[in-house]
Amino acid sequence: MAAMYVRFEAPRDLQEKAYEAVENAVESGELVKGANEVTKAIERGTADLVVMAQDVQPEEVLAHIPLLCEEKDITYTYVHSKDELGVSSGLEVSTSAAAVVDPGRGADLINQVADQVESLKE
Questions:
Q1: Pure H helices in 1-121
Q2: Is 83 exposed, middle or buried (0-12, 13-18, 19+ CB in 10 A)?
Q3: Residues 70-85: pLDDT tens digits?
Q4: Number of domains comprising the chain
Q5: pTM of the model
Q6: What pLDDT shows up at residue 66?
Q7: The domain spanning residue 58 has which CATH number?
Q8: Structure confidence at residue 1 (pLDDT)
Q9: Residue 79: how many other CB atoms lie within 10 Å
């Protein structure tokens, strides 16, 4: 069963694009990591893309993030693994969420993710 904060099922290709966008932000842009920092980036309106792991416990840690993103019109998506999200984020530990603040050379990829997410929500 999906976590309470998961509002749509992200297909594998979408997840791969999300991981790649996060990696691009680490290499050539700016990325914030962790639920608290991601929340701040959303509230400030600086996040271009929010990526959340689906295997976070307790689920309440991320419960507010999809609603905040919708309120601020920020694209968000899900990946299966907080461990893999941590690796993509350039960390040696897992992370529950990451927000691309500056996409660097990944801007096109973020647009692809946004288009795909939009079609899933319809």
A1: 12-28, 35-44, 65-72, 82-88, 107-121
A2: middle
A3: 999 999 999 999 999 9
A4: 1
A5: 0.95
A6: 96
A7: 3.30.1330.30
A8: 60
A9: 23
Question: Strand 30-33 to strand 97-102: parallel, antiparallel, or no bridges (unpaired)?
Answer: antiparallel
**Share above pLDDT 70 across residues of the chain, in percent, rounded to a whole number:** 99
Residues 6+ apart with CB under 8 A from 44: none
- Please report whether residue 7 resides in a domain: no
User: Per-residue pLDDT tens for 31-46?
Assistant: 999 999 999 999 999 9
Sequence length of the chain is: 122
Report if residue 40 sits inside a domain. Answer: yes
Contact between 61 and 96 (Cβ < 8 Å): yes
Residue 3 lies in a domain: no
Q: Which domain holds residue 33?
A: 12-121
> For residue 1, is it within any domain?
no
